[in-house]
């Protein structure tokens, strides 16, 4: 509905007569509290908003801010198992001085129900021969999950064939050999 500018508005309460206070949540050392964000100052028909926010510049040292460097290497077997299958496969290949695993994604199905199948390819160099391992994951709606399954399949194969992972950092003993089945938390290799 169109109102002429000279006519009175349908709502008897005008915006300049009633000002709503805005509140903000302010974090304090003792917790949270509400604080008025703006003070309203009325002059005639004009409402002016003035901010009462003050800024405090203080420098915080790194230990107080919680910015201390953290170690990224897992320290226990359980923490090693929590890493993704893709990262475990990458570590396995790098320790053996093989090429990094290559993941190829294949999309199948109609565009509204697309499924992704990922192929993980590992090139294994042993003695004087090169063996290429190709493992496929189940079709999934997400590429990340499909890639994880393909990496898990490659790790499963390598574990069951009896490949081992050399760990120098974990035990401190140079050249110690650890079966990949132990790394994955499974039983003895078959």
UniProtKB/TrEMBL annotation:
SMART domains: DSRM. GO terms for molecular function: RNA binding. Residues 1-20 are annotated as: Disordered. It comes from Arabidopsis thaliana x Arabidopsis arenosa. Residues 84-160 form the DRBM domain. InterPro entries: dsRBD_dom. It holds the Pfam family DND1_DSRM. This is Double-stranded RNA-binding domain. PROSITE patterns: DS_RBD (PS50137). It comes from the Eukaryota. Keywords: RNA-binding. Coiled coil: none annotated.
């Amino acid at each position: 509905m169109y109102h002429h500018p000279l006519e009175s508005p349908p709502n008897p309460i005008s915006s300049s007569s009633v000002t709503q206070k805005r509140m903000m949540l302010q974090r304090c050392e003792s917790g949270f509290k509400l604080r008025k964000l703006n003070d309203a100052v009325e002059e005639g028909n004009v409402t002016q908003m003035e901010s009462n926010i003050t800024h405090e510049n203080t420098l915080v040292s790194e230990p107080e801010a919680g910015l201390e460097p953290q170690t990224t290497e897992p320290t226990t077997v359980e923490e090693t198992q929590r890493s993704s299958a893709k990262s475990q496969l990458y570590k396995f290949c790098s320790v053996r001085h093989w090429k990094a695993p290559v993941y190829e994604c294949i999309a199948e199905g109609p565009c509204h129900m697309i499924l992704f199948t990922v192929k993980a390819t590992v090139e294994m160099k042993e003695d004087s021969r090169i063996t290429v391992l190709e493992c496929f994951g189940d079709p999934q709606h997400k590429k990340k999950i499909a890639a994880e399954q393909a990496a898990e399949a490659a790790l499963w194969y390598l574990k069951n064939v009896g490949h081992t992972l050399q760990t120098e950092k974990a035990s401190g003993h140079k050249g110690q050999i650890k079966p990949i089945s132990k790394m994955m938390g499974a039983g003895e290799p078959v």
